[in-house]
Amino acid sequence: MPRFATCLLVLLALLPFAGHAGTPAHRPIVIGYVMDGATLPPIDARKLDAINFAFAHVDPRHEIFLRGDTASTALAGLNALKSDNPDLKLLLSVGGWGSGNFSEAAASDTTRATFAESAARLIVQHRLDGIDIDWEYPTLPGPGIGHSPADRDNFTRLLQAVRARLDTLGNADGRHYLLTIAAADGEAARGLDLSRIMPLLDWINLMTYDFFGSLTATTGHHAALGKSASAPADARTTMAAVDEFLAGGVPPAKLNVGAAFYGRKFVRVQRANQGLHQAYGEHAAFLSWRDLQAGYVDRNGYVRHWDKDAQAAWLWNETEGSFVTYEDPQALRAKAALVRERGLGGVMYWEHRQDDGTLLDALRDGLYRP
User: How many CB atoms lie within 10 A of CB 128?
Assistant: First the structure.
């Protein structure tokens, strides 16, 4: 058979598997963070691919530990969800904002080995599928945490130690244990040597939220997809964060965008532009989606607005001068569409207890409906 005919037949055979524009070559995943508590929230395991249980911490001896009396029971309850979805993955998330002792644990071969061994021990003890490391952030100061310019290299070495220990454990068990991290863009990403850590990681959960808050000079969309027309030149967005990590060599399928199931409330806001990108007196509250539906969205003087450039909603109370930035179903479908269009890994969200099911369903609708 002539070569061109053979090539044509191969091409025709592959056509049924070729995705159209906007359809990734893989099925996007959904990852939900679930915080510890006296009881677990309702969880439909069939709607999730992975659960990150939050949080474990690092002690001064460089070991990962579970804080509180409810964590072990909660992990057992989360493992029980696998009866409804045998493919569900359960990871232990270590760290979070203000959680320290990472810099010290990463500082030497000995301390890294101790950290990695504790990770393996917890995986076996609680029948976990992997570890998610949420060090916020290598090389940067934080509330009561240590940091060092050496963190960038040491974080790579810490991940190497954990990956090697999990591989040893997996070789004995005949399985692969997941190793993931949470990360943020801009200054927070400077402590990540992406080219060296990506071969070690199964994916990165990109925290594409908290762009505006108590540390910013004005109000704004805290989880915007794109850049608002009135935003400052250096405004952070989900699109910019994704572009930054892809340019750093992260494979698209290993990058998950973050969704916020909560909003931020600002008070004593200047009244121009319905409060958007205005100076404010105080960042007053975090509000769950449940809170927003019950008392804010088109209620009690709060009027919903939509920013087509940012693909983000906000609430404005003219009488009180109060501004609320949040993600609603329309915004989350737009984020899901970005995942499909760019061939990204999927979406992770913070945090499951804050939703009544509406936002998770909106994400899934955006990810899986043609």
Answer: 22
Q: Give start and end residues of each alpha helix (H) in the chain.
A: 3-14, 71-80, 102-105, 109-126, 151-173, 194-197, 238-247, 289-295, 329-342, 358-368
- Domain segments of the chain as ranges: 25-260+328-368
Question: Is 136 tagged catalytic?
Answer: yes
- Residues contacting 212, CB < 8 A, separation 6+: 218, 219, 220, 221, 222, 264, 325
Q: Domain 25-260+328-368 class?
A: alpha beta
| Count of CB atoms situated within 10 Å of the CB of 133 | 25
Instruction: Report the relative pairing of strands 130-134 and 89-95 from DSSP bridges.
Output: parallel
Token pair in block for residue 168: 């040893």
Q: What is the pLDDT of residues 298-325, one digit of tens each?
A: 999 999 999 999 999 999 999 999 999 9
Residue 24: other Cβ atoms inside 10 A = 18
* For range 83-105, the mean pLDDT: 98
Q: What tokens appear for 63 in the block?
A: 């070991």
- How many whole angstroms separate alpha carbon 285 and alpha carbon 326? 12
Q: Strands across the sheet with 312-317, in order? A: 282-288, 262-267, 322-326, 312-317, 303-307
Q: Note whether 229 and 311 are within 8 A (CB).
A: no
Q: What is each CA distance from 174 to 162, 166, 180, in whole angstroms?
A: 17, 11, 20
* Cα 225 to Cα 241: distance, rounded to the nearest angstrom: 10
Crossing angle between the packed helical segments 71-80 and 109-126, to the nearest 10 degrees: 60
Claim: this prediction has a pTM higher than 0.70? yes
What is the C-alpha to C-alpha distance for residues 13 and 21, in angstroms, rounded to an integer? Answer: 19
Catalytic pick from 63, 104, 136, 327? 136
142-177: pLDDT as tens digits: 998 999 999 999 999 999 999 999 999 999 999 999
Give the C-alpha separation, 126 to 40, whole Å: 16
Give dist(CA 207, CA 237) in Å, integer. Answer: 11
Q: Which two tokens stand for residue 357?
A: 């099911």
